[in-house]
Design goal:
The protein is mainly α. Strands 1-2 form a two-stranded antiparallel ribbon. The relative contact order is 0.15.
């Protein structure tokens, strides 16, 4: 078992869902906590408020990239590559998930069976985390912060 998987299980058992887990891992890698941000991410759980719409792994992964490259205060500049990074992640996610499950919404991924959440979601979260790390690294970031050039 990898450290990421163990962390995912711990967070899941604590009642967090895919989008929240991705952000918590990113925040912890930066040595931060932000309960307000994690709370806000709950709106993405279960395909946007458990409506079964767009998967929280996709939306959470996009938010995780934004955590590193987005604008957070007026004095900051958003990384000019932010949207390209998010597009790359979204394209990867769509290709991977469509080929496996035939869609990117929670209802399709889970085949309308909540029990599939336990077998499908953890691997999607781990794969998404790895892809986000890859995209960030290619753009000069690591999960623990900005890489030195």
């Amino acid at each position: 078992m990898t450290d990421a998987f163990i962390k995912l299980v711990e967070l899941s058992q604590a009642g967090f869902y895919c989008s929240q887990i991705l952000l918590i891992i990113g925040l912890e890698a930066q040595g931060k906590e932000n309960p307000d941000l994690v709370r806000a991410m709950s709106g993405l759980n279960g395909g946007i408020g458990f409506c079964g719409k767009t998967c929280g792994v996709l939306t959470g992964g996009a938010c995780l990239i934004g955590l590193y490259a987005g604008k957070g205060v007026a004095e900051e500049m958003e990384d000019s590559r932010l949207n390209d990074m998010i597009r790359e992640f979204a394209g990867w996610f769509e290709e991977k998930v469509y080929s496996q499950y035939g869609g990117i919404d929670c209802h399709t991924i889970l085949e309308n069976d909540p029990m599939n959440r336990m077998t499908r979601c953890p691997q999607l979260v781990l794969d998404a985390l790895a892809k986000v790390e890859e995209i960030l690294a290619a753009n000069g970031y690591s999960l623990s912060g900005r890489l030195e050039y």
